[in-house]
Design a protein that fits this description.
Strands 1, 2, 3, 4, 5, 6, 7, 8, 9 and 10 form a 10-stranded mixed beta sheet that branches. Helix content is about 45%, strand content about 15%. Helix 3 packs across helix 10 and helix 14 packs antiparallel against helix 15. It is rod-shaped and about 145 Å long.
Length: about 450
């Protein structure tokens, strides 16, 4: 029973800690970053294109981590950038062809961040048999497809035309990849530009078409020097299709990069997950990309996020290597704030014991003020005639002390106070008796 009594006193003495802890915990959760969302939106490109195919693979990977990826079809890279910049579109990340950022104003580029490069995207110039286009100037006066409006294909082709002093002609048509493929087959186009990985079904279909062949861009190295986002890419004979020997000769083309770009609405914790999922998709490489070469930090037309930079330097965050993403993210968020939280609690914990001792001592010490006042009145004689009143007050004090709760370890202070009150009562009684006994006057000689 004594222990329960002491425990009750201890809990009462520390009741003030409850609102303090509630306040600290409230501040802890208030400053904590919100949990990563379970829904993410990716702008890709036209259905059937390389970006859409990659988006489907990424969607399946992220679903394993409990993240739902919504794919939004668009006209292409330029359209993707516009949607990433548009605050009215709930979009967080997009697939963008390197170099298309050149079409943005500087203040627009600052609003976006890069997550890295994913794979090479060659520029394919398919032409009808009988043509032998080796230089872009030979396209004057011909019916060609230059990519749809808003696409990365049109963006890079327009840049190349401008560098060659070429002005768009009526026969240069803005068509989607599928539309250009149909137009090549029916003869309404003489040549058309396409951008995509060599494994893309449409590129493979064009490569097997006996009525088409690929143009050899002889000045690819010069274009690379003028456009840092492009790379001269040698293609060996038969790379696209061995059975049909396409291309039928070694040739050179240009290649851009498919990149991941994010806006400020992307939760930082999702960046390593998206990049790791991309790595798993791309780990086996392709016909032109060696295994385990992507994703990578360079080249990127946008500054990398700090999370992406950390991923390329050290890999996945430590906890995500051993725990599911949702759990690792939760623990990681709490660890970040645990240090300042402990910095508050440790000094608070050191204060508890002295505060407890002070509160227990104060339950007895506060009564001594009245005893000191009585003692002062005895010394200056002002208590004469009021002894009985003070004795009555001291008796009331003794009754009140009987209701004072103290742990067993502090009970000696309470008993000492009782002794001091009793002592003061006896002193006052002695003074009262002296008042009742008249003083004897000295006898006269």
């Amino acid at each position: 029973m004594t222990r329960l009594h002491d425990l009750k006193i201890y809990l009462k003495a520390h009741f003030w800690l409850i609102p303090v802890l509630v306040l600290i915990v409230g501040l802890f959760f208030w400053t904590l970053d919100p949990a990563p969302p379970t829904h993410l939106t990716l702008v890709t490109g036209p259905e059937g294109g390389g970006y859409h195919a990659f988006g489907q693979h990424l969607k399946a990977r992220l679903a394993e981590a409990g993240i739902e990826l919504e794919l939004v079809g668009t006209a292409g890279s330029l359209d993707n950038l516009k949607r990433l910049l548009d605050k009215n579109h709930p979009v967080q990340i997009g697939l963008v062809q390197s170099g298309t950022e050149q079409h943005l104003a500087p203040e627009e580029r600052q609003q976006l961040r890069g997550l890295g490069a994913l794979y090479q995207e060659p520029l394919w110039l398919f032409q009808c048999r009988g043509l032998d286009i080796r230089d872009l100037a030979q396209l004057r006066g011909k019916q060609i497809g230059i990519g749809s409006d808003g696409s990365g294909t049109q963006a890079v082709v327009t840049s190349l035309f401008a560098a060659n002093g070429l002005v768009r002609e009526p026969g240069w048509q803005a068509l989607t990849s599928r539309q250009a493929s149909i137009a090549l087959n029916d003869g309404s186009l003489e040549a058309a530009f396409f951008v995509g990985p060599p494994e893309n079904p449409l590129i493979q279909e064009l490569a097997r078409n006996p009525g088409l062949w690929l143009a050899d861009l002889r000045r690819a190295a010069a274009y690379q020097a003028h456009f840092p986002f492009l790379k001269a890419l040698p293609l060996p004979e038969g790379l696209l299709d061995l059975a049909h020997n396409s291309p039928d000769r070694p040739l050179t083309t240009l290649s851009s990069m498919a990149t991941l770009v994010a806006n400020r609405s992307l939760h930082p914790a999702l960046t390593p997950l998206v990049l790791e999922s991309s790595r798993q998709i791309l780990q086996h490489g392709s016909l032109i990309d060696p295994p385990n070469s992507f994703p990578r930090a360079e080249p990127s037309g946008f500054a990398l996020t700090k999370e992406a930079d950390s991923y390329y330097r050290t890999g996945l965050p430590y906890l995500q290597r051993f725990m599911p993403f949702r759990i690792a993210s939760l623990v990681d968020r709490y660890i970040v704030l645990l240090i300042p939280f402990l910095a508050i609690l440790l000094p608070l914990g050191k204060m508890i014991s002295p505060l407890y001792e002070w509160r227990m001592h104060s339950r007895t010490y506060k009564w001594y003020r009245h005893l000191h006042e009585i003692d002062a009145q005895i010394h200056d004689g002002s208590i004469r005639g009021h002894e009985q009143e003070e004795i009555a007050r001291l008796h009331e004090m003794e009754k009140a002390l009987g209701r004072v709760e103290l742990p067993l370890s502090y009970s000696h202070e309470l008993y000492a106070l009782h002794l001091h009150v009793h002592y003061m009562i006896e002193r006052l009684r002695g003074l009262a008796r002296e008042e009742r006994v008249p003083r004897k006057t000295p006898r006269q000689p």
